[in-house]
Amino acid sequence: VVAVSPKITEISSDISINEGGNVSLTCIATGRPDPTITWRHISPKAVGFISEDEYLEITGITREQSGEYECSASNDVAAPVVQRVKVTVNYPPYISDAKSTGVPVGQKGILLCEASAVPSADFQWYKDDKRLAEGQKGLKVENKAFFSRLTFFNVSEQDYGNYTCVASNQLGNTNASMILYGE
After folding, report:
1. What is the model's pTM?
2. How many domains in the chain?
3. Cβ atoms of residues 82 and 71 within 8 Å
4. Does residue 108 share a domain with residue 64?
5. Which of 43, 84, 120, 150 counts the highest number of beta carbons within 10 A?
């Protein structure tokens, strides 16, 4: 018998899936003797193998199950060969932090809205029901992947009140209210 080191001949492509969907990954390998195939999730929380054959099925995938999955083919002839597939799990935004802030007149004030989402959330700010436009006098809006910051350079009485941050992506939107108040 001629020994042949393992070789992965076919593996699933990277995929993007909405939370709750089903994922099916395949890893086909050749070699002599026939290689043993295992799948594992590359993640700090992952323990051991999650599948001991060519197929990995995940039903009702959660955001914690996103990341890289590694297929390993081994047959003791040579070192195992490994390849990875990236699984991106999309989910609608949820706002993890939005606090009201007290600021005296004439001072700088900041309202912060933090949100997790995949793809990253788009943010919009409203005062009462009126949308705040970027570049409005005395205001600055900074949007990053996971948060939006509304800065008042010189707080006036008129700035006090109720503000709403809306975070949205293709899967949905959510909002949180906070108050800018005087001290």
Report:
1. 0.87
2. 2
3. yes
4. no
5. 150
- The two tokens of residue 27 are 């890893």
Question: 76 and 44 share a domain?
Answer: yes
The residue assigned the tokens 């995929």 is 15
What pLDDT, in 10s, does the model give residues 88-132? 999 999 999 999 999 999 999 999 999 999 999 999 999 998 999
